[in-house]
Amino acid sequence: MLSKSLFVDSIKNLQFLNDNYDRLVKEYNNKWIIIHKQKVIKSEDTSEEALSFARRYDPNSILMKYMQAEEIAMFF
Amino acid sequence: MFALPSSRVFKGINVCGQPIIPVLFEVPAYGVSKIVRFLVDTGSKVSLITEMEATLAGIDCGTLPFAKDISIGFGGLFKHKTLNYLVTLTFSSNNDELKINHNSGFSVICPPENLEPKNREIMLRHTPCVLGMDILSKFEVYLSKRRVELIYLGD
Asked: What number is the ipTM of this complex?
């Protein structure tokens, strides 16, 4: 169960994103955000900039997400 | 009388209308071990990770070969890349872990090389990692606004 803590951290960051989505999408509209320990630690305009910043952290401890207030239809 | 085996239930979370489940994605050949948040997509035949996620995990997508098969999505036909190594997916619950091996050919979705930078960025922003039926067929899948659950059926 070595991976247990990784899952716990990931779920906490996901839950934070979900619980605060409305606020975050207003605050960071059209930005990439990086969440670490249930806090937004950085916002960037491009994926390249966001990746560059994210590389400073353990990738298992962060959540990267592009925030967009405008609805976009997605089909997968 | 005999006791039924306890269900192996793995829970995800509905994030902004999308059912997401965290899975430990491991590629021993690359030394990669990363939690990946997958979209549970029963409409997709195969599972895939994105270039963004692979890059963050430490995989250089530029070195990956293209898959032999062509993919099709709403954007039309395109070529995806492939990880020709063992990939292990670990699902976790409060008291259980389940490892599923994907022996070879895990798909990696990269924006086409001839895509304009603006469109490449849009693709990177919105393309999720997907858990498709190649993996989901091993589970009963329950999805609702409040419930994202995969119940392992066994092999």
From this structure: 0.88
CB-based contact B52 A51, cutoff 8 Å: yes
Domain containing residue A34: 4-67
Identify from A1, A3, A21 which residue to disrupt to test chain B contact, counting B C-beta atoms within 10 A and taking the largest count.
Answer: A3
* Cβ-based contacts of A14 with chain B (< 8 Å): 13, 15, 20, 22, 37
**Among the listed residues B77, B67, B76, B85, the one whose alpha carbon sits nearest the alpha carbon of residue B27:** B85
CA proximity to A67, closest of A37, A13, A36, A23: A23
Choices 3.30.2270.10, 3.40.50.300, 2.40.70.10, 3.40.1190.20: CATH for B9-152: 2.40.70.10
- pLDDT for B75 beyond 70: no
Structure tokens at B78: 């395109």
What's the CA gap between A42 and B103, in Å, rounded? 37
Chain B residue with minimal CA distance to A6? B35
Taking the C-alpha atoms of residue B42 and residue B47, their distance in angstroms, rounded to an integer, is: 10
Q: How many domains does chain A have?
A: 1
| Residue A66 sits at the chain B interface (C-beta within 8 Å) | yes
Extents of the domains making up chain B: 9-152
pLDDT tens readout for residues B97-124? 999 999 888 999 998 888 899 999 998 9
For residue B68, is pLDDT > 90? no
Stated as kind and residue range, the H or E segment containing A49 is helix A47-54
